[in-house]
Structures are given as C-alpha cells and as structure tokens.
Design goal:
2 strands; about 350 residues; about 75% helix; mainly alpha
Length: about 350
C-alpha cells in the first residue's frame, strides 16, 4: 500500500486534469458555437438557462424521447402488475415478494438516482459539444488539452448514459425482488482492457463467458484454443453491435489489448519473474510499476474505444496528434496523467471490487 499522502496527490491530480481539460472543451464549445450550430443544428431548450444542446448522440436522444413518452406509464404499469403478483402470492401462501412500503422506498431511491444521472448527462451535452466536435474538422486543430478533454468527456458521457439506460431495467428488477447485475463501473477508474470488459457491462460479460467463450473451449484448449475462443467472442460482440467496419476494427483492437494483457499477466506470474520482482522491488515499487504499465494499457484502452464511439477516423486523429506528432512531450504528458489515473483505479479496485 502506498502512503496516504501519495494516493491523495494522485487523486487530486486526476481530478484536476479532468476539470481543467473539461474547461478547455467548454471554452472551445462556446467559441465555435455558431459554427457548430450551422453544421449540426444544436438544440435550444430552457433546461440550463437557454444553453444549446449537442443533439448528435443518436442513442441518447432516441431513448430519451422514448422515455418522455413511455417511461412513466411503464413504471406505473409495472408497479400495478408487481403489486397484483404480491397479493396473489399472499393468497397462495407463498413468500411475499416485497411489501408496498418496501417497493415505494426502492422506487423513490431508484428514480432519484436516475434523475441525478440524467441531469448530469444533460449538463454534459449542454456545456460541452463533444460529439459534434468529434465529427467536426475542428478536431484537427484544437489544443492538446482540449483533445484530451474531448476524449475524457466522450467516454464519461458514455458511462453516465449507460447508468441511465441500464438503471431503468435494474430498478424494475429490484421492484420484483430480483438482483440485477451491477451497474457500470466508472470508466475513470478503469486501468485495463480486462477490467473494462468485466466491470462495465457485467450482464454482457457474463453472457459472453457462459454462452460464447466457454462453449468454444475457453482456456481449456491450450494457448491457441484460448486465442481462438477470445477472437470468436469479440467477433460475436462486433456482430451483436451491428457489424460495421468501425466495430470490427474496435473489436479486433480490444481483442489484441486483452491478449497482450493476458500474456503479460502470465509472464509476471511465472515463478522466476515473481521472485525477481519480490527480491529487487519493494511492495510500493511494485505498485508503482503496476501503475506505469497500466498507464500504457489505459492509453490504448481509451484510444481503441474512441474508435467505437467516434469511428476509425477519430481514432486515427488521436493516434496522429498524441503519439506521432506529439512525441515526446505530449505523449509522455498523457502517460503521466494516466499514471495518476491508474493509481486511483488500482486503489479503487482493491477497495471496492467484490466481483
């Protein structure tokens, strides 16, 4: 375990990087608001004092419109059916699903969380036009701070969006006395490909392991069989999401990331390597080495998932500007920031991960 002051320093640095880069995105959004409005038809509403909204995330807008029309009726209908089932269970002398008071408490807490997440997602697309900027030629010319802020804003909006989209069915399951899969873990605490796939969409991960990876042989058929099973699993994921060129590229890159991480983990678990590290490095030094390696993995994790969120061209732009044109100072600065993020993520995983 690292000293508390050092962990606090990494946490404060991570938060500072987040907020400053978001501020840079906010400034660029305001400076180019008219230009982006002409190109993408920003929406005007009164939710945040007349600020315009970036409407270019199709998934968020589609489900938001559906929710405005149907969500209230869905909850009311479900509550009525759930309470009717409870009364029938009582009459049949079966264990009670949940009392009306418990259901009301679950509903109130769940709706409160959903409203907070929805408000945060809406605030992000009103203050930062990250989706429009990722589709604009401006992406080639904004500062490196803005570029980093756009990447963070894009992936964090994706996280908050799915807290809402997954939170609705999770709430319905709780009203029925069922235990839903855990909601996505914050992407700012992710520091590996395996962690991202395991803890972001837990339900999808469990489904893939049970119905795709294990039936294909999994890790029981040697190294080649493991590689093939993993590749076919990611091929299924790409097909599941729509089978576009961007998705095949994203799935292939993530398969590569998971494979490299698994290979590195096997290498570090070898007895001779483990004993060498233990002999020459203190526990604190090994922790810092872990964060250093994780910062490289995290940089690729963000880059590859930007291909999923923005397309191959967005991924190429980030690769060129951060890793080619930006070498060495921009690249090393990004890895330094991600080193701090990795320390926070590792501490979070060791403290809170129960899966």
């Amino acid at each position: 375990m690292l000293p508390q002051w050092e962990l606090t320093l990494y946490l404060l640095a991570s938060l500072g990087f987040h907020f400053y880069s978001f501020y840079e995105v906010y400034k660029v959004s305001r400076e180019h608001e008219d230009e982006l409005d002409q190109e993408f038809e920003l929406e005007m509403d009164t939710l945040f004092g007349g600020l315009k909204k970036d409407p270019t995330d199709f998934e968020w807008n589609f489900w938001l419109e559906w929710g405005k029309r149907s969500l209230v009726w869905l909850f009311l209908g479900h509550a009525a059916v759930s309470q009717l089932a409870t009364l029938l269970a009582k009459k049949m002398q079966q264990p009670e699903l949940s009392s009306p008071k418990q259901s009301l408490c679950i509903l109130a807490k769940g709706l409160g969380r959903l409203l907070c997440w929805w408000w945060l997602a809406e605030l992000m697309v009103h203050l930062m036009f990250m989706h429009a900027l990722h589709s604009s030629p401006l992406l080639e010319s904004v500062s490196c701070w803005t570029l980093g802020g756009l990447a963070l804003a894009q992936v964090l909006f994706f996280y908050v969006k799915y807290l809402v989209l997954f939170g609705v069915p999770a709430l319905l399951m709780r009203l029925d006395g069922l235990k839903p899969p855990p909601l996505p873990r914050c992407v700012s605490t992710m520091f590996s490909f395996t962690g991202m796939w395991r803890y972001f969409d837990v339900g999808l991960h469990n489904f893939l392991i049970r119905y795709v990876y294990i039936p294909l042989g999994g890790s029981q058929r040697g190294l080649l069989g493991t590689l093939l099973s993993t590749a076919m699993t990611f091929a299924f994921v790409s097909y599941w999401h729509g089978s576009y060129e961007d998705l095949w590229c994203w799935a292939t890159l993530n398969w590569l990331g998971v494979t490299v991480e698994s290979g590195a983990q096997r290498l570090l678990e070898r007895r001779c390597v483990r004993e060498t590290l233990t002999r020459y490095l203190s526990p604190q030094a090994r922790r810092r080495l872990h964060a250093l390696l994780a910062s490289c993995s995290t940089s690729m994790l963000i880059l590859f998932n930007l291909v999923f969120l923005g397309g191959i061209q967005v991924g190429k732009t980030y690769w060129d500007r951060i890793f080619l044109q930006g070498w060495p100072w921009v690249t090393l600065s990004v890895l330094g920031f991600l080193y701090c993020y990795s320390h926070v993520g590792i501490a979070w995983a060791q403290t809170y991960t129960v899966l």
